[in-house]
């Protein structure tokens, strides 16, 4: 869900960049964001527990897009269910169930469009679907981490420790986590939006001058997040105004109660829990190969940092001291490592069943040489039901399939010159054509059709040519003026970020001025 309304008020410090800006750098990617996007093309299949091949193909295309631009992707997956997010997960599950029932009802009524829309809202990315993506990434040699709990906290750990240079996601949660550079909304061309935490003071819509990282975090929680719903009537702008004036959430809660807002009972304690989750959630450390807090726990324990009286017990710690259960239980090192490597189901803590071979075969890509090779391809699982794999189209340098790559190109003028229309003789009769010189039947592919017709036309007897006039023209033929045509030639400019192309006009031979206009 992210922080409600945060990204729109940060537009002034949001830069349009291309993923190529991070060539040679490591970028952590929220894998579930790609999986949810890819699920739109096969939502019904996923709701019916059928093959996720289309979804995995979409995700692998996005991964290869990063590789093609020199970016080193690190895919991060969500893990087990975080206790602090239990209410939010239950609410999402109810909405999915309602939409699934609605989709089936629409389908029975013959309302295909409404059923398709409801299926998209009902789809759930299960650990089994994610496991297909994990296996494809392993076959392609891509680095990945399955978080013990939330992927957002795991990516924040990678960013704060310097293991990655940026984070690519669709959620705004990474900003209150404290990630220095966050990339949002990458499209299929590699264009995305960049927000740098160091530029927060330059924001114009909501002034953040004088805000500390703690104040910014508390403002985001007040506006509503995955761990705590917002107070009714409080959005990002009111939360900003209150924090700018009062500096801390406990004072804000007192002020809101005094002004007549309906602040739920125990809201301050729940707010403190959310703060602790953002600061100290359990994550996986690749170097130590064990679970540990996102940030070190304070020496005096969690209660030493509480800003409000904590009447409720924090919960029984399962492992080292001061680690409350709502932060996520610290798993044994061997189990945490197997989850991080994608060998265990993070929900059941059991090994995954064997991934179907039809998923691994078409997606086992290695290196940038395979960039774009998935474009136009069909995965075996779905294509075999339609009579086999479709022929792969040739791929251009930019990774886009060239639908005209094998077609012989020629101008309309040259095509006309290859056609010889029969002319009448002086007696008015048509010249006879020898049967032996007739055009042979061409059973070859269309790629050679032009050359076959040209050679056959050359075998026809030449008709009599009328005499030339004094101006060197023939009767019935208007002399066409000589014209130089123009065509656009791409000249790639070296820039930082996306590669831009400017077009320069160069002269080339063309049969007529009309043809020149058609080319330009």
TrEMBL record:
* SMART domains reported for this sequence: XPGI, XPGN
Biological source species: Symbiochloris irregularis
Disordered, as annotated region = 421-488
Q: Which Gene3D superfamilies match?
A: 5' to 3' exonuclease, C-terminal subdomain, 5'-nuclease
- Which ranges carry the XPG N-terminal domain? 1-99
Q: Which domain of life is it from?
A: Eukaryota
Q: What is this protein called?
A: Exonuclease 1
Q: Which UniProt keywords apply?
A: DNA damage, DNA excision, DNA repair, DNA-binding, Excision nuclease, Exonuclease, Hydrolase, Magnesium, Metal-binding, Nuclease, Nucleus
**GO MF assignments:** 5'-3' DNA exonuclease activity; 5'-flap endonuclease activity; DNA binding; metal ion binding
Location of the XPG-I domain: 138-208
What is its biological role? Answer: Putative 5'->3' double-stranded DNA exonuclease which may also contain a cryptic 3'->5' double-stranded DNA exonuclease activity. May be involved in DNA mismatch repair (MMR).
Q: Which cofactor does it need?
A: Mg(2+)
GO BP annotations of the record are:
DNA repair
Could you tell me which Pfam families the record lists for this protein? XPG_I (PF00867), XPG_N (PF00752)
Q: Which family does it belong to?
A: Belongs to the XPG/RAD2 endonuclease family. EXO1 subfamily.
The cellular component terms of Gene Ontology attached to this UniProt record, alphabetical and capped at eight, are: nucleus
The protein's location, in the record's own words, is: Nucleus
């Amino acid at each position: 869900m992210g922080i409600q309304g945060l990204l729109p008020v940060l537009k002034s410090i949001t830069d349009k960049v291309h993923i190529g800006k991070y060539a040679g750098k490591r970028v952590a990617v929220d894998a579930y964001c790609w999986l949810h996007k890819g699920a739109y093309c096969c939502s019904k299949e996923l709701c019916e527990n059928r093959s996720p091949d289309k979804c995995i193909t979409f995700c692998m295309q996005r991964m290869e897009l990063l590789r093609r631009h020199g970016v080193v992707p690190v895919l991060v997956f969500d893990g087990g269910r975080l206790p602090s997010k239990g209410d939010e997960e239950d609410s999402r599950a109810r909405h999915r169930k309602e939409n699934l029932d609605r989709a089936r009802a629409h389908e029975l009524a013959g309302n295909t469009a409404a059923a398709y829309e409801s299926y998209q809202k009902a789809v759930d990315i299960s650990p089994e679907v994610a496991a297909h993506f994990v296996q494809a990434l392993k076959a392609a040699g891509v680095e990945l981490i399955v978080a013990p709990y939330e992927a957002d906290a795991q990516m924040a750990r990678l960013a704060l420790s310097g293991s990655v240079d940026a984070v690519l996601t669709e959620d705004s949660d990474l900003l209150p986590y404290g990630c220095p550079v966050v990339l949002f909304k990458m499209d299929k061309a590699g264009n995305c939006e960049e927000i740098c935490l160091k530029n927060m003071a330059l924001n114009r819509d909501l002034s953040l001058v004088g805000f500390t990282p703690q104040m910014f975090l508390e403002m985001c929680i007040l506006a509503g997040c995955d761990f705590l719903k917002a107070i009714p009537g409080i959005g990002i702008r009111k939360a900003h105004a209150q924090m700018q004036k009062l500096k801390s959430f406990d004072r804000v809660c007192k002020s809101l109660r005094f002004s007549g807002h309906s602040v739920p009972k125990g809201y301050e304690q729940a707010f403190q829990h959310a703060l602790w989750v953002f600061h100290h959630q359990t994550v996986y450390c690749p170097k130590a190969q064990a679970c540990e807090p996102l940030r070190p726990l304070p020496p005096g324990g969690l209660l030493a940092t509480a800003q409000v009286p904590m009447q409720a017990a924090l919960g029984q710690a399962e492992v080292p001291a001061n680690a409350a259960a709502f932060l996520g239980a610290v798993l044994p090192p061997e189990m945490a490592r197997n989850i991080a490597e994608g060998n265990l189901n993070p929900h059941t803590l059991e090994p995954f069943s064997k991934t179907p071979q039809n998923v691994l075969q078409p997606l086992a890509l290695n290196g940038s040489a395979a960039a774009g090779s998935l474009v136009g391809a069909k995965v075996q699982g779905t294509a075999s039901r339609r009579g086999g794999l479709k022929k792969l189209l040739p791929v251009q340098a930019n990774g886009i399939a060239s639908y005209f790559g094998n077609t012989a190109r020629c101008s309309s003028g040259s095509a006309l010159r290859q056609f010889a229309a029969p002319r009448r003789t002086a007696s008015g009769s048509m010249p006879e054509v020898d049967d032996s010189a007739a055009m042979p039947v061409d059973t070859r592919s269309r790629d050679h059709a032009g050359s076959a017709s040209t050679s056959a036309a050359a075998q026809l007897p030449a008709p009599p040519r009328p005499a030339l006039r004094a101006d060197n023209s023939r009767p019935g033929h208007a002399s066409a003026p000589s014209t130089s045509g123009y065509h656009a030639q791409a000249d790639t400019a070296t820039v930082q970020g996306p590669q831009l192309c400017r077009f320069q006009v160069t002269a080339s031979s063309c049969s007529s001025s009309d043809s020149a206009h058609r080319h330009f």
